[in-house]
Amino acid sequence: MTGAALQSDILRLALGDFLDRLVSAIPTIIIGLVFLVLAAILVKLVLAILNGVLSRTMRGESPVYRQFLTTIVAAFLWFGVGLSTLSVVGLDGIATSLGTAAGFLALGVSYATSNMIADAVAGVYLLRDPDFETGDTVRVGDMEGVVESIELRKTRFAVEDDTVVRGNADIETQWTKIGGDGA
User: Fold this and answer.
1) HEC string of 62-128?
2) Are residues 138 and 103 in the same domain?
3) In this structure, what CATH number is given to the domain that contains residue 165?
4) Is 111 exposed, middle or buried (0-12, 13-18, 19+ CB in 10 A)?
5) Which residues contact 82 (CB under 8 A, 6 or more apart)?
C-alpha cells in the first residue's frame, strides 16, 4: 500500500467516524436547542414581570435603579441558562468548571468593586430618604452645601461657586440637614 492510499484510507475512516458521531449527537443538539429556546422565553417573561413590578413599586425613582436591578437579575438568569444548557447537552464537566471559575471571578470583582457597591447601596438609601433631597442644605464632615443632584454612586453639592462631588457611602453615615431635622 502506498503512502497516498494509506492517507486516503485514514482520511476516509476519520471522516466516516466524524459523520457517525455527528449523526448520533443530533438528538442531543436538538434537545439542547429546544431547552435553550424555552429557557430564553422564560427569562424574557421573568424580566418583563420584574420590569412591571419595579415600575409599579419604584414609580417616583430614577429609571437607572430599575435598569440596574433588571441587569443584575438578567446576568444571573442568562448565566444559569448557559450552564444548564451545557449540562443538558452532556457537557457537565465544562458547566461545573465554568460555574466554579465564575464564582472565583465574582469574588474577585466584588472585592475590587466593594467601594463602588457601597456607594450604590448608600445611594439607594439617600434617594429614598425624605430628609435628604435636592435643594436641601446639608453638612457632610467639614463641607456645607446645597444638594444639587443625588445619583446612584455620588451626590453633587453646590458650595459657594463650586460643585463638590462626594461618594454616597461617605455621605450616608455622616450628613446633617441644616435648617431642618438632621439625620
Assistant:
1) CHHHHHHHHHHHHHHHHHHHHHHHHHHCCCHHHHHHHHHHHHHHHHHHHHHCHHHHHHHHHHHHHHH
2) no
3) 2.30.30.60
4) exposed
5) 98
Residue from 15, 135, 34, 144 nearest 85 by CA: 34
Domain hosting 166: range is 133-177
Q: What is the mean pLDDT of residues 19-28?
A: 86
- Which range in 14-18, 47-51, 59-63 is most confidently predicted, on average pLDDT? 47-51
How far is the C-alpha of 103 from the C-alpha of 97, rounded, in Å?
Answer: 10
Give the C-alpha separation, 81 to 95, whole Å: 11
Residues 16 and 95 in one domain: yes
Cβ(94)–Cβ(86) below 8 Å: yes
In terms of Cβ atoms closer than 10 Å to its own Cβ (0-12, 13-18, 19+), residue 175 is buried
User: Cα(159)–Cα(11) distance, rounded to whole angstroms?
Assistant: 78
The model's pTM is 0.56
User: CA 35, 39, 42, 46: dihedral to nearest 10 degrees?
Assistant: 160
Ramachandran sector of residue 177 (left: φ over 0; alpha: ψ -120 to 50; beta: rest): beta
The β-bridge partners of 164 are 157
